[in-house]
Amino acid sequence: MRLTTFSDYSLRVLMYLGAQPDRLVTIPEIAAGHGISESHLMKVVHHLGRCGLIETVRGKGGGLRLASAPQDIVLGDVIRNTESDFTLVECFGTNATCRIQGACQLNTILREALNAMFLALDGYTLADLLMNPQGLIPASSYPETESQTTA
Asked: In the UniProt record, does the keyword Oxidoreductase occur (predicted)?
């Protein structure tokens, strides 16, 4: 199974916010730091907000922050909320028809593998990804300080 870009970007946004809990972060800042399209990130941020994972503050001085503590954000839940299709092979669905369905064990084995992946992901939280928070902030995305803007 391969995660979608949407899930990848969702995890990057959560890590970026988790690495900077004391301030609001903007979409343009995250986009610049990761080289991601702002319009694509807006969709990701909107979805994360609807899922209750982040909070958005509108207006001048607004931005984004985590809605919960990093240790309360389970990675398995994030992936379940950002992926829409866990079909690993055509016969994986409940309404699938296959000419060898009665004898083939592939569906059962793949379902077991998917369950094992989520069992592993459910054992980790965003806090586990934040062991080196400063390393998670690309250098190009640090907010400019007054000394940088006057130099």
From this structure: no
